[in-house]
Amino acid sequence: MNDHVRRNTPLFPIGIVQKLTELTPRQIRYYEEHGLVFPTRTEGNQRLFSFRDVDRLLEIKAMMERGVNLSGIKEIYELKTYSEEPKQPKAPRSHDMTDRELRKHLRKEVMMAGKYSRPSMIQGQLSRFFD
DNA sequence: GTTCTAACA
DNA sequence: TGTTAGCA
Q1: What are phi and psi for residue A34, nearest 5 degrees?
Q2: Nearest nucleotide, C1' to the C-alpha of A30?
Q3: Over chain A, what is the mean pLDDT?
Q4: pLDDT band per the 50, 70, 90 thresholds, residue A110
Q5: Which nucleotide is nearest to A70 (CA to C1')?
Q6: For residue A29, which nucleotide's C1' is closest to its Cα?
Q7: Which of A52, A63, A120, A128 lies in the 20 to 30 Å Cα band around A107?
Q8: Which UniProt keywords apply (predicted)?
């Protein structure tokens, strides 16, 4: 289990992403249509977003609030060939991360990803994923 | 109850 | 972008 995998693992249905980003499902789906995020699908065709998708949605939201339109945002990302995750140097781990360790790290990431959301909402959702 | 697609007073 | 309709 490495950082790249954690950031790209599909974990959240659109409802959770909505609360984490304060974007409407309509906007989130619309941004996907324009190739700004790439959620995977479950067997039932429901979207599952990764931390990376959430991070990007937060960036998009920030840009929109600063007056950048969809076309402008698309151009910015298209120039970056979508994946620009900082390469993680191979960590010399002697063993794989335990489930407990993974949960601890994921919890930290959710805190980060949802730092712009209302605390009450974050807390309410955290209980659905951790302990 | 939640999410999905498509469409528009 | 909002919102509603009809499904899964």
Answers
A1: -95, 15
A2: C1
A3: 75
A4: low
A5: C1
A6: B4
A7: A63
A8: DNA-binding, Repressor, Transcription, Transcription regulation
> In the structure, how far is the CA atom of residue A22 from the C1' atom of nucleotide C3, in angstroms?
18
Instruction: Band the pLDDT of A96: cuts 50, 70, 90.
Output: low
Could you tell me which of A83, A88, A61, A84 has the C-alpha nearest to residue A73? A61
Give, to the nearest 10 degrees, the angle between helix A99-113 and helix A51-65: 10
Mean pLDDT computed over A94-110: 53
Q: Distance between CA atoms of A28 and A15, rounded to whole angstroms?
A: 10
> Hey, what CATH topology would domain A3-129 get?
Multidrug-efflux Transporter Regulator; Chain: A; Domain 2 (1.10.1660)
Which residues get their CB within 7 angstroms of nucleic chain C? A 24-27, 30, 44, 64, 70
Nucleotide B3: closest residue by CA–C1': A46
